[in-house]
């Protein structure tokens, strides 16, 4: 049983490395959009009654998450992946991920990247605004959009680990995954 589990794990590692290398190749060329899930956090959800404008009431990046955010920024620089613009959810864990990772760039708050609304019509409007932003991007560098798992799943049909980058393009009213980078 142990050997089978080890064999499956070892078979998966080269696929992850290949996906990550392909993702960096896309970003080095510029002109792409990255949905970046915020880095690792403490706890498993925001407490009841949290305030979007008060970080003390929200889930925070863990020490490991802060390290992960620094690694994200260092790898973007080391891999020569240019950044034109950074948009972030207004949640502190997303803003902190962007601020730590990309300290030289000004992060802009973009409300449609906030956790998806429980209201179906509001959630659809959020997704539409994100797709519109992706469709309208035409920079020489890359657009990084820091958001949450639920948003990435709703937009692409795929999940993402904490701190994972999902490179996307527009495909109708959804986004298509072009590549991934796992940090």
Give me some keywords for this one.
alpha/beta; Rossmann fold; 6-stranded mixed sheet; 5 helices; 43% helix
Descriptive report:
Mean pLDDT is 89; it is low at 4-18. This protein has 183 residues and is α/β, with parallel strands linked by helices. α2 packs across α3 (92-101). It has five helices and six strands. It has a six-stranded mixed beta sheet with strand order 3-2-4-1-5-6, sandwiched between helices. The chain has helices spanning 2-29, 63-78, 92-101, 120-136, 149-156; strands at 33-37, 83-88, 107-109, 142-147, 165-171, 174-181. It is globular and about 45 Å long. β5 (165-171) and β6 form a beta hairpin. It has one domain (2-181): 3-Layer(aba) Sandwich (Rossmann fold), CATH 3.40.50. Helix content is 43%, strand content 19%.
* CATH evolutionary superfamily: Phosphoglycerate mutase-like
* Number of beta strands: 6
Q: What general outline do the C-alpha atoms trace?
A: globular
How helix-rich are the residues, as a percent range? 40-55%
Q: In the CATH classification, which architecture applies?
A: 3-Layer(aba) Sandwich
Q: Return the CATH class.
A: Alpha Beta
Classify the fold: give the CATH topology: Rossmann fold
Count the DSSP helices.
5
Contiguous uncertain segments of 5+ residues: 4-18
Indicate the mean pLDDT: 89
How large is the share of residues in beta strands? 15-25%
Distance between the termini: 29 Å
> Gyration radius, to the nearest Å?
16 Å
Keywords: Signal
InterPro entries: His_Pase_superF_clade-1, His_PPase_superfam
Organism: Mesorhizobium hungaricum
Protein name: Histidine phosphatase family protein
